[in-house]
Write a structure and sequence with these properties.
heterodimer, A: mainly beta, 4-stranded antiparallel sheet, B: mainly beta, 6-stranded mixed sheet
């Protein structure tokens, strides 16, 4: 069964460094999402992406964040200058066609900022 | 703003016990409601959903009914198994948007 994959499973970085979190969505899906979950808090929507552009973003998704689909298979989240409060589990998701289709999630990347 | 509140965990049950995980929501309009489950080391998987009031979602012995009058979507299972041990997330989605709004998640541990 096709699944969303994410790499790495755990990323440790120093404050101020740039990180790129990678996701491979299910191959025929058209909508892509990033969510995050700070330890002990709710899973929060960050951004959705369709047709090579951002379709929605939350207030969390500020200028330090960017997303890209560089090669037609990967979907990346870049954090330019990490802060301690960026430490969280980051989930990628994809859905087949319409925005209201079921979203399929990856296992997550745990980001630890020291 | 729109939000989801679910009961704090962890919840520990013996095998074959009855499970209820409470979920209430705050939203304008008529959201769709979801339960996702995350097994250890895996991503969130859709467990069940309901798109309008009084709809009942069901899957793998789990059920939840969309109650607009109480703004609730409680998850129930009559007889849990050890394999049901996981984290359960309640979520809503507004009709015109794609993003999901999640609760904090409830960890369930089922002991043999």
């Amino acid at each position: 069964e096709p699944e969303v994959t994410q790499t790495p499973s755990h990323q440790v970085t120093q404050m101020g460094q740039e990180v790129i979190l990678r996701c491979v969505p299910i191959s025929n899906h058209l909508y892509f999402y990033w969510y995050r979950q700070i330890l002990g808090q709710k899973v929060e929507f960050l951004v959705s992406f369709y047709n090579n552009e951002i379709s929605e973003k939350s207030e969390i998704f500020d200028d330090q964040f960017s997303v890209e689909r560089p090669d037609g298979s990967n979907f990346t989240l870049k954090i330019r200058s990490t802060k301690l409060e960026d430490s969280a589990m980051y989930f990628c998701a994809s859905s087949p066609g319409q925005r209201t289709d079921t979203q399929y999630f990856g296992p997550g990347t745990r980001l630890t900022v020291l | 703003g729109d939000s989801v509140t679910q009961m704090e965990g962890p919840v520990t049950l013996s095998e074959e016990a009855f499970l209820t995980i409470n979920c209430t929501y705050t939203a304008t309009g008529y959201p769709s409601l979801f339960w996702y489950v995350q097994y250890p080391g895996e991503g969130l998987q859709l467990l069940l959903k309901a798109t309008k009031a009084d709809d009942k979602g069901s899957n793998k012995g789990f059920e939840a009914t969309y109650r607009k009058e109480t703004t609730s979507f409680h998850l129930e299972k009559g007889s849990v198994q050890v394999s049901d041990s996981a984290v359960y997330f309640c979520a809503l989605r507004k009709g015109s948007q794609g993003n999901l709004i999640f609760g904090k998640g409830t960890k369930l541990s089922v002991k043999p």
